[in-house]
């Protein structure tokens, strides 16, 4: 701490602005990943890694514009669920004798959703159904999803969750039926339009959906298996198998009790009448709107992942690709925000669905070329922050992009542009489709065509948060950049207008990982309650900061011997003192206002303020200052204070290096190293009894100075 000769001795008490950093080191790469889940990350889904025996899974089906339109006779509304709890039978009876029946049936399944629930359709009342939805197929399906969610709900922290969602979609559209809005606005019949397949009236129908409830199977009754399956061809007789030119969908789930992950086995087949079909496995937000869906939803994500701070892990085995036009999405993300950056509110004329999709079918090539810029995003951002415009033919990675289209309600689009299909969503949409390319390698994505495709099953860990933060998405000029929160994370395929094709794949071990310490945690301020906060600290800034440090420590804690530990601490301090506010005690005793005192710098009221602190989870750099009106996006321009600490390390190699920068300003005077000594042999009163060499740089009363240094390999050694 800085020591100074003052007219009156004063011990400056202050509230630290805290930035905590957890650094976990491990030699083995795979072990580091596994340990990271136990230290730096937590799961955002209710069933981490799909390992919970008591499964929660549901299915939904959409038409071209993500609605129901009309129900299939005798099928009910196209929402259904398979949710059960599993109980282990005791091997002995209450009288102590062996239970032979229990040995034959070692487990018992209790299903929470009945066949009657799943067959509910328009006109059938149920608990919670809104009166205006009783005879409206679209609203009825939305209400039914909430009802099924209530039967499957698992209480959890920070929110309850409901089920994995299987999503089906029929790409046919009858333009003469006028069922789909155009960019959110109702339109009348039009056509013909060769862009949309349709065999005639009824082509937008929902599929047949049959359900084999999960049961215990196998010789020992320890294999759990169930499925949903069916066809869009309503006259198909599936008892005869896939005979003839018929469409088909099937998802089978299987797991050994107490072992490993659920394996979801998907099959999708197109037909002449239904050449454009989609099948995805989704983790939707458990509350609110999901990607592409303008009604309240239910899902598996109890925490909404936000760019740039989340990862997605799963195992994928592509068995059949679905043909040359199968847009198989290794990762498909959906969200919603308005063009001005505001969150969606259900207004389909101003809400915009945003999609980011990585296609891994090697048959799908880039449509983005120097002579076809209208399907390229305006710019590409490299991992180091370098931004390259699409006109820069030497540096722009055209091959990394399959297709980009702009929202139909964008007012300030950069020419040339291509508008997204205005009909295949209930509201305008923006779509970013990318392809395997070296520019995505740093995020864990495939870098060459064919990686992860047929014959190359893999377990992926994708830094989806950082990649999605780097992608271009349209926003009106001059508006505050949106916080990108992804309401739906899914994978699967869209077979695009290609009849008689089959795709087949399995997914397991799916998880979404978010930092233990979230942006919400770091932004907690007095008045915001959190676990462990003492009541007297809620509105006391000093006590609140002390309690918050303990709370952050609890989230970062590593169990160790002889004691747990928490984090390296970066400490900031503002040396200004307003003597008229009487905020600081004198040697521990409260004192009243005094001054003026030239020994303490202060530009006036508010000079003792805390610093602006902005946080990027991989670095702490830029955008940090005590000058509260500063715009650091313009760089260190003018007389402004500044602090930055950046940490960097090669995985598995060496030490973390901490790079520090500290700059003073006229209004925020702190500490400096290049001052002369007041300690002399003839002035021993200002000398300490003994000297210990310092390991840091300090600045005192010198404006507009910069200190910069690095620290690494730090350790404290004690005798064994």
TrEMBL record:
<feature type="domain" description="DUF7705">
    <location>
        <begin position="42"/>
        <end position="514"/>
    </location>
</feature>
<feature type="domain" description="DUF7705">
    <location>
        <begin position="665"/>
        <end position="702"/>
    </location>
</feature>
<protein>
    <recommendedName>
        <fullName>DUF7705 domain-containing protein</fullName>
    </recommendedName>
</protein>
<dbReference type="InterPro" id="IPR056122">
    <property type="entry name" value="DUF7705"/>
</dbReference>
<dbReference type="Pfam" id="PF24804">
    <property type="entry name" value="DUF7705"/>
</dbReference>
């Amino acid at each position: 701490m800085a020591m100074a000769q003052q007219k009156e001795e004063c011990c400056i008490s202050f509230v630290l602005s805290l930035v905590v950093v957890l650094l976990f080191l491990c030699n083995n790469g795979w072990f580091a990943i596994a340990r990271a889940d136990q230290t730096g990350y937590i799961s955002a889904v209710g069933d981490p890694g799909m390992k919970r025996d008591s499964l929660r899974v549901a299915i939904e089906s959409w038409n071209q514009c993500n609605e129901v339109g009309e129900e299939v006779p005798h099928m009910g509304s196209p929402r259904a669920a398979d949710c059960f709890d599993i109980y282990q039978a005791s091997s002995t009876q209450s009288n102590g004798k062996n239970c032979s029946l229990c040995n034959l049936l070692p487990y018992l399944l209790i299903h929470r959703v009945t066949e009657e629930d799943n067959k509910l359709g328009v006109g059938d009342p149920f608990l919670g159904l809104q009166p205006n939805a009783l005879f409206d197929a679209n609203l009825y399906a939305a209400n039914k999803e909430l009802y099924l969610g209530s039967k499957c709900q698992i209480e959890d922290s920070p929110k309850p969750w409901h089920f994995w969602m299987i999503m089906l979609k029929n790409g046919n559209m009858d333009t003469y039926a006028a069922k789909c809005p155009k960019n959110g606005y109702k339109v009348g019949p039009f056509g013909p339009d060769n862009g949309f397949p349709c065999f005639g009236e009824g082509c937008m129908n929902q599929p047949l959906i049959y359900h084999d409830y999960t049961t215990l199977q196998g010789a020992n009754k320890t294999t759990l298996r169930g499925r949903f399956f069916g066809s869009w061809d309503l006259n198909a007789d599936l008892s005869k198998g896939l005979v003839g030119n018929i469409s088909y969908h099937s998802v089978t789930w299987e797991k050994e009790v107490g072992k490993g992950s659920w394996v979801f086995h998907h099959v999708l087949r197109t037909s002449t009448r239904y050449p454009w079909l989609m099948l995805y496995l989704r983790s939707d937000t458990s509350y609110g709107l999901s990607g592409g869906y303008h009604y309240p939803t239910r899902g598996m994500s109890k925490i909404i992942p936000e760019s740039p701070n989340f990862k997605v892990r799963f195992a994928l085995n592509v068995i059949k690709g679905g043909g040359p036009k199968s847009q198989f999405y290794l990762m498909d993300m959906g969200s919603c925000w308005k063009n001005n950056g505001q969150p969606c509110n259900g207004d389909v004329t101003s809400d915009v669905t945003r999609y980011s999709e990585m296609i891994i079918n090697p048959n799908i090539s880039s449509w983005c070329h120097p002579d076809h810029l209208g399907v390229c995003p305006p710019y590409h951002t490299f991992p180091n922050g370098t931004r390259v415009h699409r006109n820069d033919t030497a540096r722009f990675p055209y091959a990394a992009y399959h297709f980009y289209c702009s929202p139909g309600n964008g007012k300030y689009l950069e020419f040339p542009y291509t508008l997204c299909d205005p009909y295949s969503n209930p509201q305008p949409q923006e779509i970013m489709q990318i392809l395997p390319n070296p520019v995505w390698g740093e995020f864990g994505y495939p870098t060459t065509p064919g990686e992860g495709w047929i014959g190359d099953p893999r377990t992926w860990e994708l830094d989806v948060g950082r990649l999605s933060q780097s992608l271009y998405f349209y926003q009106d000029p001059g508006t505050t950049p949106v916080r990108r929160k992804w309401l739906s994370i899914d994978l699967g395929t869209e077979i695009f207008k290609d009849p008689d094709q089959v795709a087949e794949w399995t997914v397991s071990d799916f998880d979404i990982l978010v930092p233990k310490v979230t942006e919400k945690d770091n932004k907690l301020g007095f008045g915001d309650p959190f676990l462990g906060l003492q009541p007297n600290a809620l509105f006391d800034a000093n006590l609140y900061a002390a309690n918050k440090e303990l709370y952050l420590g609890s989230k970062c804690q590593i169990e160790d011997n002889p004691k747990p530990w928490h984090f390296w601490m970066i400490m900031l301090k503002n040396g200004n003192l307003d003597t008229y506010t009487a905020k600081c005690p004198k040697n521990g005793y409260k004192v009243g206002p005094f001054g003026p005192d030239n020994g303490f710098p202060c530009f006036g009221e508010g000079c003792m303020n805390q610093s602006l602190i902005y946080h990027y989870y991989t670095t702490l750099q830029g955008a940090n200052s005590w000058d509260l009106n500063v715009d650091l996006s313009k760089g260190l321009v003018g007389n402004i204070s500044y602090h930055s600490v950046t940490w960097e390390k090669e995985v598995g190699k060496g030490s973390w290096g901490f790079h520090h920068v500290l700059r003073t300003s006229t209004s925020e005077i702190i500490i400096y190293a290049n001052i002369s000594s007041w300690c002399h042999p003839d002035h021993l009163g200002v000398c300490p009894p003994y000297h210990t060499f310092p390991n840091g740089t300090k600045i005192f009363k010198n404006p507009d100075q910069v200190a910069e240094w690095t620290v690494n390999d730090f350790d404290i050694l004690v005798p064994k």
